[in-house]
Amino acid sequence: MKKRKKWNFLVLGFAMLPMASLAGPPGPDDIAALSLEELANLEISSVSRKPESLASAAASVFVITAEDIRRNGATTLPEALRLAPNLQVARYGAGSWAISARGFNSLSANKLLVLIDGRIVYSPLHSGVFWDSQDVFMPDVKRIEVISGPNATTWGSNAVNGVINIVTRNATETTGGKLALRAGDDEQVYATRIGATTDGGTHYRVYGKSLDVDSTDLANGASRNDDITRSQIGFRVDTGSENNQVTMQGDVFDGDLGTLVGRLEISGANLLARWRHVAESGSVINLTGYYDQSGRHNVGTGIEEKLDVFGASFSQQLEPLANHSIVWGTDIRSARDDITNVPGAAFLPAQRHLTWISLFAQDEMRLDESLSLILGARAEDNDYTGLEFMPNVRLAWTPMEHHLLWTSVSRAVRTPARIDRDLFIPAEAPYLLVGGGEGFESEIANVVEIGYRAQPSDKFSWSVTAFHHDYDRLRSQEVLPTGVITFGNGLRGTSTGLEGWWTWRPLSTWQLDGGFFLFDKDLELQPGSTSLTTTEGNDPEHQFQLRSFWNMTARSELAVFIRHVDELPDSVPAVAAYTAVDARLGWRVTDALEISLKVKNLLDDEHAEFNAAGGRAVYGRQAFVQLRWNYL
Predict the structure, then answer these.
(1) What is the pLDDT of residue 6?
(2) CB atoms < 10 A from the CB of 421, how many?
(3) If you average pLDDT over residues 324-333, what whole number do you get?
(4) Is 111 helix (H, G, I), strand (E, B) or coil?
(5) Which of 627, 594, 599 has its CA nearest to residue 192?
(6) What is the pLDDT of residues 459-477, one digit of tens each?
(7) Angle at 609 between CA 228 and CA 186, to 5 degrees
(8) Do strands 97-100 and 88-91 pair parallel, antiparallel, or not at all (unpaired)?
(9) How far, in Å, CA of 250 to CA of 478, rounded?
């Protein structure tokens, strides 16, 4: 029996129907796909922290649009992230995922920075993201910008192998009501949102979402007992003028899920405020502050974490000289982490107050009409290793219209997390494992990239990037002379690969998208290392995907998503390669109501995606009925 109160947001949504008199007409729903030229001109901000078109961004960046999410039928963030060919996304259990860019994937992948509307959500406990605690109302997602490769100058430490920036719609775009449902054999999602406008011109929305996913199974048919029930409510307010825009938003969530070591209770709340000001001179100032509180309590083991994070950032975009566009600013992130230890494991000290303070600047210099040089650097101070320096140099050349050749050289850093320095097993001596303490240093990546992006016609576009990462001081499990294991920086190595994607529209009613990722990782021990292993993460050497979108009639559509993932060699035994086919058949009953049938793993009885054999989940055929309704 689950020992938590379950919020029924479906009832809440219908209870809010009387608010219809406050709402304006329904906002845009991105039903019509963007043309390739519109997609190329899509405005993004993650690469250089200023608005720029996707076509001109000198980085390996893929954008998941709201239309992509709708046509795929994704109801959670990890499900939507499968659409990015430059990510490795593996389902670990009912509510847990392993997600990374350019390898080093694990349940606690620690080289990927994730933001939701500018709020950094990686945990200082392990430098990774607890995906079971991150959710949004999916129809309100405007786009997801996925950068593969380092972006540390722009976003700081942990942006080593990639950045995911989830951008939700302005409240001006979400007036009216929307209901989004999914119901299937082992998964139910209920979500609703109301948006309205006050007499003074302030726009706002509130939403609620409830997720229930049944336990997954082991290969022998036994249950993993990892079911998840999660509920969340939130709001967003946007007000001001074109030159002075103010945003406030926040969320509260509560959940319960099973793990291999007992039930886990999760909860949290966040609040964010942002001000954007455009001066008469043309300079743009962005000021953001947020508070993020979360808790995780494993009832089975007794270990509990309470985390409070305060973040603030300031950035200014200006053009002080002809042919120079400068972005500079400062970021501060402060975390108070409080662990309730248990006899079997402890973080010592149990409480930590950690702070990251940084200053960054980047100058885009227009050398001529077709050539730009981008120079940037960030200096960041943290409580574990002090001052870290993260520079980058990028060169972008436009040889002809709709073509971009770019290259970059970057240095990125993953600063230590609590698990690297403070973990002890058991809680008292004699220990089997001790944290690396002051001896554990930051991990380093020096990266070279070269990419080409082109749209040779109004029916076809493509992008390809080659990369080489040189890693130093990677985390290792060192054996002390006493036989005790400790975390050190005993690994080094390289990764080399090629990633790319394309879009082809042979007909106005039919679109094909494809993507691939080829990857080779070679790690070795540093001189003098006593590490037990030369592996970190678990990665396929290649993966491919193909998506087909066909508007069969004016009101019906068929989407098919095929993905192939190579074996994961570092599991025991290896996770076998698999090919999965998902399909969604959608029907717009009216302009306001859409019903669809989605089938996952259409041609596959079952396959595994991650984890060692003892706790490895398998996933078979699943069918869901989904509904989206603009009910106001």
Answers:
(1) 44
(2) 20
(3) 97
(4) coil
(5) 627
(6) 999 999 999 999 999 999 9
(7) 35
(8) antiparallel
(9) 42
d(CA 37, CA 136): 29
- Element housing 37 (H / E): helix 36-40
- pLDDT (tens digit per residue) in 353-397: 999 999 999 999 999 999 999 999 999 999 999 999 999 999 999
Compute the chain's Rg from CA coordinates: 24
Q: Is the Cβ–Cβ distance between 116 and 136 less than 8 Å? A: yes
Q: Is 40 left (phi over 0), alpha (psi -120 to 50) or beta?
A: alpha
Q: Of the candidates 30, 29, 63, which has an alpha carbon nearest to the alpha carbon of residue 44?
A: 63
Per-residue pLDDT reduced to its tens digit, 591-622: 999 999 999 999 888 999 998 888 899 999 99
Neighbour count for residue 457 (Cβ, 10 Å):
11
DSSP 347-372: ESSSEEEEEEEEEEEEEEEE-SSSEE
**What are the Cα distances from residue 511, in Å, to 136, 287, 461, 514?**
28, 40, 12, 10
Distance separating alpha carbons of residues 336 and 321, to the nearest angstrom? 42
DSSP class of residue 34 equals P
Q: Cβ contacts of residue 378 below 8 Å, gap of 6+? A: 152, 153, 154, 156, 358, 359, 360, 389, 390, 391
Residue type, 232: Q
502-539 as b/e: b if 16+ CB within 10 A: bbebeeeeebbbbbbbbbebebebbeebebeebebbbb
Which secondary-structure segment (H or E) carries 462?
Answer: strand 460-479
Q: What is the DSSP letter of 77?
A: H
